[in-house]
Write a structure and sequence with these properties.
The chain is an alpha/beta fold. It has two domains: about 1-115 and about 300-358, Rossmann fold, CATH 3.40.50.300; about 120-295, RecF/RecN/SMC, N-terminal domain (Glutathione S-transferase Yfyf (Class Pi), Chain A, domain 2, Up-down Bundle). The chain is about 40% helix and about 25% strand.
Length: about 350
């Protein structure tokens, strides 16, 4: 699906705006604080129900407004159009697709799968494991139909087990949840492993082209390698009881990242971290397309930030090869590296208003 029409109301600095997009490539230029990133956020919100840079949706609602609304028309590859719309306000979040209510963010993500690379993408490498788990699970979710159900069951069991631990429940009451935790945890770990085997070489290949060095990922399941989850839970039980939380399981999984043989999180520059994270996302997009689950749109916010000319040109070239709709922002519409993109529809944004450039 490609986003052909977008309507935005009361989203950050955007009062009211509409745009008709190209099915392949769109370039958005404008000065700082003009609304370029807000436009990309609105597109991301349409597919994910959240922002790629703000942790709380209430910060997205324009000042003095009660709610935001983002809607769009999606075109299928084989023809036909589908409407999708999301609303957030004091009554919470609501979404509809094709005239039907969307019951969850997971369901929304299947309607319009969208990914983003922004100037803060280095956080995928630099910060804690939660973002890396989310990155991995995004890919698994789109290729393994049972993953969401297993993930929800695991999270429910984990929540109940931890609540029992915090409440000082008897050992038997706490460990009554172990069976569900083990069954669903093994399933999650297996699905992640299968997907990771396809993901790692795709990321490595992109890393070689982008950084001139291998970006090597290693997956830790969330318990000791070579140990079954049931055994790991038994071994961790005294610590779980003492500290009132579950210490092993898929909720503790992480991905380690090496660039040129060096641990990226602590020993490479911010620019290299950004390139490594971009390689991870671009590699994932390539992997998912190969597995038959392509992402609909990639949003690239200010790719020139903190990159020299050579690396910027490599990044744009790799982006241009992806089989998805592209949205790219830039301060300078004449930036030479943008010439590596496919023929694009160009927009200018200023004071939250979107103008098509002829």
């Amino acid at each position: 699906m490609t986003l052909r029409h977008l309507s935005v109301r009361d989203f950050r600095c955007i009062d009211s705006a509409e745009a008709e997009f190209d099915a392949r490539c769109n370039v958005v230029s404008g000065p700082n604080a003009s609304g370029k990133t807000s436009l990309l956020e609105a597109i991301f919100f349409l597919g994910r129900g959240r922002s790629f840079r703000a942790p709380r949706n209430e910060t997205l609602v324009r000042r003095s407004s009660r709610e935001l609304l983002v809607s769009g028309r999606l075109a299928a590859a084989g023809g036909g159009m589908r409407s999708v719309g999301v609303r957030y306000g004091r009554d919470g979040f609501q979404a509809r697709a094709g005239g039907q209510r969307v019951g969850s963010l997971a369901e929304l993500a299947t309607v319009f799968p969208v990914q983003a690379i922004d100037p803060e993408v280095h956080r995928l490498v630099e910060e804690g494991p939660q973002a890396r788990r989310r990155y991995l699970d995004w890919g698994v979710f789109h290729v393994e139909p049972t993953f969401v159900d297993q993930w929800r069951r695991y999270q429910r069991a984990l929540k109940q087990r931890n609540a029992a631990l915090r409440g000082g429940a008897a050992d038997a009451a706490v460990r009554a949840w172990d069976g569900e935790l083990i069954d669903t945890g093994r399933s999650l770990a297996t699905s992640r492993r299968v997907y990771f085997e396809a993901l790692q070489p795709a990321v490595a290949a992109v890393g070689e082209r982008l950084l001139g060095a291998g970006v090597i990922l290693a997956l830790a399941d969330g318990w000791a390698h070579g140990t079954d989850l049931a055994t790991a839970l038994d071994d961790a039980w005294p610590r779980d009881r003492d500290q009132a939380t579950t210490h092993v399981g898929p909720h503790r999984a992480d991905i380690s990242i090496r660039v040129g043989g060096v641990v990226a999180r602590h020993h490479v520059s911010r620019g290299q971290q950004k390139l490594a994270a971009a390689a991870m996302l671009l590699g994932q997009l390539r992997c998912d397309a190969t597995l038959g689950s392509p992402t609909s749109a990639l949003l690239v916010d200010d790719p020139a930030a903190e990159l020299d000319q050579a690396h910027l040109e490599r990044l744009i070239s790799l982006i241009a090869e992806l089989p998805c709709q592209l949205f790219v922002t830039a301060l300078d519409p004449g930036l030479a590296a943008l010439g590596r993109l496919p023929s694009a529809r160009r927009f200018h944004v200023e004071h939250g208003k979107i103008h098509l450039l002829i």
